[in-house]
Amino acid sequence: MFYIVLVLDSTYKINNYCPVLVGFIGVTSTELTFSIAFAYMMSEKEDNVTWALERCCDLLKYKDICPKVLVTDRDNDLINVVDIIFPNAIVLLC
Description:
Blueprint: E1 4-11, E2 20-28, E3 33-41, H1 46-62, E4 69-72, H2 76-85, E5 90-93
Helix pairs in contact: 1-2
């Protein structure tokens, strides 16, 4: 059985321009990790997060993968968008 856990996290203020770097990391059932995508966003507002998650969803659908579990921080905008883009996934907070 193959499944992935999608881990979403972002960085803040790491350079002079201050874009937010969001990483999409997968973990397989055999505990191997792999990078799915990275995205720079000007802010972590809901419309930017929606765009990034929709692109990630497109990549996963292309490979016929649907995450069962998503792990993220306590960012409400991100959690709201995850519930819309991946409605069947379980959201865990780290």
